[in-house]
Amino acid sequence: MIPVISGTLDANGYLVISDRAKDIIKSGGEWISTVELENIAIAHPGVRSAAAIAARHPRWDERPVLLCVRAEGGEVEETDLLSWFEKRVPKWQIPDRVIFVDALPVSATGKVLKNQLRQAYGEILMSEGK
Fold first, then answer.
1. Are 47 and 76 in contact (CB under 8 A)?
2. Tens digits of per-residue pLDDT, 28-51?
3. Where is the AMP-binding enzyme C-terminal domain (predicted)?
4. Closest by CA position to 34, among listed 57, 52, 55, 22
5. Residue 97: pLDDT above 70?
6. C-alpha–C-alpha distance, residues 85 and 80, integer Å
7. Going edge to edge, which strands form the sheet with 97-100?
8. How far is CA 126 from the centre of its chain?
9. Rounded mean pLDDT, 5-28
10. Which of 11-25, 39-53, 72-86 shows the lowest mean pLDDT across its residues?
11. What CATH number does domain 22-128 carry, 3.40.50.720, 3.40.50.620, 3.30.300.30, 3.90.220.20?
């Protein structure tokens, strides 16, 4: 299987890859990059690692959910990270939930296993009625 990628063409006609298609969240009619959300999250001093996934949503089809591992000694909370995002992205890109975990599942090569995260958390917004 060949992964489908997403990107844009720069001024010189080169493809700039931004994400794999399965890692882009389509919320309503808007596209949200999981890579961008993860980069913003790990820029916070209280976050060691992060993974953004699409969670099913009753109104918007999909919404971002962010799973984070706190930095050692970090005391960051969900409200702290949501405020961090408010200063960096449009409101519609802000994750609906931030969930703190002890570790993210990774493959033998260190890649985050987002399929496991989607299986575990992909329905969380449906059960919360958000």
1. yes
2. 999 999 999 999 999 999 999 999
3. 36-111
4. 52
5. yes
6. 9
7. 47-57, 61-70, 97-100
8. 17
9. 68
10. 11-25
11. 3.30.300.30
